[in-house]
Specification:
It comes from Thermocatellispora tengchongensis. This is DNA-binding LacI/PurR family transcriptional regulator. The chain is of the alpha/beta class and 331 residues long. The chain folds into three domains: 44 residues, Orthogonal Bundle (434 Repressor (Amino-terminal Domain)), CATH 1.10.260.40; 128 residues, Response regulator (Rossmann fold), CATH 3.40.50; 127 residues, Rossmann fold, CATH 3.40.50.2300. Helices cover 44% and strands 17% of the residues. It has 13 helices and twelve strands. Strands 2-1-3-4-5-11 form a six-stranded parallel beta sheet, with helices on both faces. Strands 7-6-8-9-10-12 form a six-stranded mixed beta sheet, with helices on both faces. Strand 3, helix 8 and strand 4 form a beta-alpha-beta unit. The N and C termini lie far apart (67 Å).
Length: 331
């Protein structure tokens, strides 16, 4: 069956080919009556615009790159952050009649590939996730003039719109919870210190202890379950008398709970614990994990809306969402 053409739609609607082109390309210089006539003809004939030709006319691809600065083993792991952000961004962009191009940039070679792809004009905008301190992509993409936003405050000094949550305030609330229940030796398992979330949550921990007689006791993980277990064992060796720990994400907290169980420490009797994220698994740990709920879906939604809103129409370029303490049995 022959594919309907622009000319066939024009003949059916009783308008010019140029008018049909303006309607299907979303231009606003057409009256509502003519637009309705053209769209009726489009639906009756089953016309589908040629995306390549349409891009030449509109200078738009209707594609948005979602760039994750992590290797596949991290993105497609048990950490629900990535799947939640990808799912939410895809849903929001689909509602705006745009599609997501998922790109992983966990190595120097993949960084170069991503830069070439974006510089080639294949996308209308870029969303950056999970950036690390030395990541060259934010500055490189900013120089290209392509609209770009970040999930989380950028880890490098670049002026870029971002959506984040209150990592510092959330960590302070978590540690205050441990102080309020009378804990004296409060340690932390920090996240990667080349990431803003890791830095900010460590800052919040230290802020909450400042002014008290407690000293900082710090081990560093990489936001994975295994690193949480290793860091917890290290903390127990460094200070066997510790009686509480703030863990910078729930996956590391799950690993830490396992290490405490293996060491014969009861939670919360011997060691109280507060995590950060409120992933679904936090409800089902033994005991259920007290944690800071961060609004992942809302943050991803805010990121997409920042990107789709012209700069002159934004109320702000920097969205910071509140976190919430969820009290369960571990603290």
């Amino acid at each position: 069956m022959k594919r309907p053409t622009l000319e066939a739609v024009a003949a059916r609607a009783g308008v010019s080919r140029a008018t049909v082109s303006r309607v299907v390309n979303g231009q606003s210089t057409v009256t509502p009556e003519i637009r309705d006539a053209v769209m009726r003809a489009v639906n009756e004939l089953g016309y589908v615009p040629n995306s390549a030709a349409r891009s030449l006319v509109t200078q738009r691809t209707d594609s948005i790159a979602l760039v994750v600065s992590e290797p596949p083993t991290r993105v497609f792991s048990e950490d629900p952050l990535f799947s939640t952000v990808i799912r939410t961004a895809s849903r929001e962009l689909e509602a705006a009649d745009k599609q997501v191009v998922l790109m992983l940039a966990g190595t120097p070679q993949s960084h170069a590939r991503v830069e070439r792809y974006i510089a080639g004009g294949h996308v209308d905008g870029v969303m950056l996730i999970s950036m690390h301190g030395a990541d060259p992509l934010p500055a490189a993409i900013s120089r290209m003039g392509v609209p770009v936003v970040s999930y989380g405050r950028p880890a490098v000094a670049v002026d870029m719109p971002f959506a984040d949550n209150d990592n510092v305030g959330g960590a302070e609330t978590a540690v205050r919870r441990l102080l309020d229940i009378g804990r004296r030796r409060i340690a932390t398992i920090a996240g990667p210190l080349d990431m803003i979330a890791g830095q900010d949550r460590l800052t919040g921990y230290r802020n909450a202890l400042r002014g008290s007689s407690r000293r900082s006791i710090v081990a560093v993980g990489d936001f994975t379950r295994e690193s949480g277990a290793i860091a917890m064992r290290q903390l127990l060796e460094d200070d066997p008398q510790l009686d509480a720990v703030f863990v910078a994400n729930d996956l590391m907290a799950i690993g830490a709970l396992q290490a405490l169980r293996q060491a014969g420490r009861r939670v919360p009797d011997d060691v109280a614990m507060v995590g950060f994220d409120d992933i679904e698994a936090a409800r089902y740990t033994e005991p259920p994990l007290t944690t800071m709920r961060q609004p992942i879906v809302e943050q991803a939604t805010a990121m997409v809306r920042l990107l789709l809103t012209p700069p002159a129409e934004r109320d702000t370029d920097h969205v910071i969402l509140p976190t919430e303490l969820v009290i369960r049995e571990s603290a």
